[in-house]
Amino acid sequence: MTSYSNVPLAVLDLSPIRTGRPAAEALENTVALARATEAYGYRRFWISEHHNTPAMASSATSIIIGQVAAATERIKVGAGGIMLPNHAPYVVAEQFGTLAAYHPDRIDLGLGRAPGTDPWTTRALRREHASGADFPEQVAELRGYLAPGSAQRKVRAIPGEGSGVPVYILGSSTFGAALAAREGLPFVFASHFSPDQLIPALELYRAGFRPSATLAKPYAIVAANAVVAGTDTEAVRIFSSLQQKFLTHFRGGMEFLPPVDDIDTLWAPQEAQMVNGMLAESFVGTPDTVRRGLEGLVDRTGADELMILSEAWDFDARLRSYELLAKAWNL
Less CB within 10 Å around the terminal CB: N or C of the chain? Predict the structure, then answer.
């Protein structure tokens, strides 16, 4: 029988910007959330990378990681993730080597291949069109800069070289699963917005895993949405803000809006089907309700760790959601 209390919980933060509010507030909340979730007992705190998105302030990911790590003491802080095709691997190695120098044994580096933005911003970021097809080569290059080196090497990441910053492969399909398996790296699946390939990706990862100097056996982290409140009704209302974010995205924008009492008054049936499909791995309700749902997720996936995204328009409600879940999970 699975001992669920042995499955660690982690936090995924998007630095959500409430519509009509400044990005500075979102960034302040990210630091406050990290402090709180460290006290609640969460294992790690990861920040995403998104660009040109009015609903999210998490664009300069490495800078936010530095602020969060400086404001906390023990919790591991990292990128969930760095969208590597947007960056020169060498610069990423220097940035995370610097973070690791400031905060030894606390910095994680999750790597993804999606741009995290629209085609126009993708071109602005990269200065050229790229599909992410060379993502495995970029990962290898980056890991080479982080590995122990020598004075004879022509290009060295200093800081970065020999830093031992742990690398995780992120994915929402089987592509990342295959790469993580081949390289013997931990794998993180983004089922909080792309649940359809969750089981196939994990099966492929475990079946193809090759032990490495980094990792002796597969380690899978599963990301999911969770909103916990005193009553199911209250939690459902809080969750409507995340549903509206996806709804506005399907309509051509993206806004983080106040909760509503009845989300069904805002969308057409086809829109509801699309949003609820993307948010299928969401657990909403009282502590007992959400705990049972997450226990079921662990049973279905064999997850070694769960990474929780809990978004709420009201920041106190967001803090409370993470606190109630921590208590229910016996962190």
Answer: N
Rounded to whole angstroms, the Cα distance separating 197 from 239 reads: 23
**If we measure between CA atoms, which residue out of 264, 288, 287 comes closest to residue 276?**
264
Can you list the domains of the chain with their CATH numbers? 4-230+281-328 (3.20.20.30)
Overall residue count recorded for the chain in this entry: 331
Q: Is the pTM of this model over 0.70?
A: yes
* Contact residues for 131 (Cβ-Cβ < 8 A; gap 6+): none
Two tokens, residue 291: 């705990």
Three-state DSSP string of the chain: CCCHHHCCEEEEECCECCCCCCHHHHHHHHHHHHHHHHHHCCCEEEECCCCCCCCECCCCHHHHHHHHHHHCCCCEEEEEEEEHHHCCHHHHHHHHHHHHHHCCCCEEEEEECCCCCCHHHHHHHHCCCCCCCCHHHHHHHHHHHHCCCCCCCCCCCCCCCCCCCCEEEEECCHHHHHHHHHHCCCEEECCCCCCCCHHHHHHHHHHHCCCCCCCCCCCEEEEEEEEECCCHHHHHHHHHHHHHHHHHHHCCCCCCCCCCCCHHHCCCHHHHHHHHHHCCCEEEECHHHHHHHHHHHHHHHCCCEEEEECCCCCHHHHHHHHHHHHHHCCC
Q: Return averaged pLDDT per consecutive 10 residues of the chain, 331 residues in all.
A: 80 96 97 98 96 91 98 97 92 97 97 76 65 86 92 88 96 95 98 95 98 96 98 98 95 93 95 96 98 97 98 97 97 91
**Torsion sign across C-alpha atoms 34, 171, 122, 249:** negative
CA distances from 289 to 24, 38, 231, 273, 329 (A): 34, 23, 10, 23, 12
Distance CA 97, CA 149 (A): 13
Q: What angle do CA 190, 195, 201 make, to 5 degrees?
A: 70
Q: How far apart are CA 276 and CA 193, in angstroms?
A: 10
Residues 6+ apart with CB under 8 A from 292: none
